[in-house]
């Protein structure tokens, strides 16, 4: 990172990403893109993102985070990951891939692209077209890995 990229509100890279999507580069949007596009890429909820923004001192409210995420989804910059549980997850749009959902932790892990092969899909009903396929594999720790006192349905978030 160069000195000009060292702002807690977003890097030059975040500015470029927003410009390519045709979005205005506000301090909050810069910080959101910077967090989502960090290494490794993250799956975040709006609440997690808001907490990360607050720790950086970025301006805004939780409702503005939801508004930014909605706008990012509309422009194709971010995608909403359909998942089980109470949390709605977001990630930067990139290479198509699928996810493991860890039930006890209410957390997502990426499944590398090319690991899932779908042989045949039904045609979409008349008047519709297939927009995408999301495979979500729900997983939980085995009894031997969970450790003593672990509860099967406990949420750790």
UniProtKB/TrEMBL annotation:
The source's domain of life comes to Bacteria
Q: Which residues bind Fe cation?
A: 97
Q: How is the cofactor bound?
A: Binds 1 Mn(2+) or Fe(2+) ion per subunit.
Q: Which GO terms describe its biological process?
A: negative regulation of DNA-templated transcription; regulation of secondary metabolite biosynthetic process
Q: Which InterPro entries match?
A: FUR, WH-like_DNA-bd_sf, WH_DNA-bd_sf
What this protein needs as a cofactor is:
Mn(2+); Fe(2+)
Keywords, comma-separated and alphabetical: Iron, Metal-binding
Q: Name one GO molecular function term.
A: zinc ion binding
> One Pfam family, short name please?
FUR
Q: What is this protein called?
A: Fur family iron response transcriptional regulator
**Taxonomic lineage of the native organism:** Bacteria, Pseudomonadati, Pseudomonadota, Alphaproteobacteria, Rhodobacterales
């Amino acid at each position: 990172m160069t000195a000009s990229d060292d702002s807690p509100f977003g890097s030059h890279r975040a500015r470029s990403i927003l410009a390519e999507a045709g979005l205005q580069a506000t301090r909050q949007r810069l910080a959101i893109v910077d967090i989502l596009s960090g290494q490794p890429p993250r799956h975040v909820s709006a609440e997690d993102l808001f907490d990360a923004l607050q720790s950086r001192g970025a301006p805004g409210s939780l409702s503005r985070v939801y508004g930014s995420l909605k706008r990012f989804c509309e422009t194709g910059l971010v995608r909403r990951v359909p998942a089980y549980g109470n949390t709605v997850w977001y990630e930067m749009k990139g290479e198509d891939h699928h996810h493991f959902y860890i039930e006890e932790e209410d957390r997502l892990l990426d499944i590398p692209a090319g690991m899932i092969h779908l042989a045949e899909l039904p045609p979409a009903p008349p008047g519709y077209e297939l927009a995408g396929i999301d495979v979500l594999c729900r997983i939980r720790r085995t009894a031997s890995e969970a450790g003593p006192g672990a509860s099967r349905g406990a949420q750790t978030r």
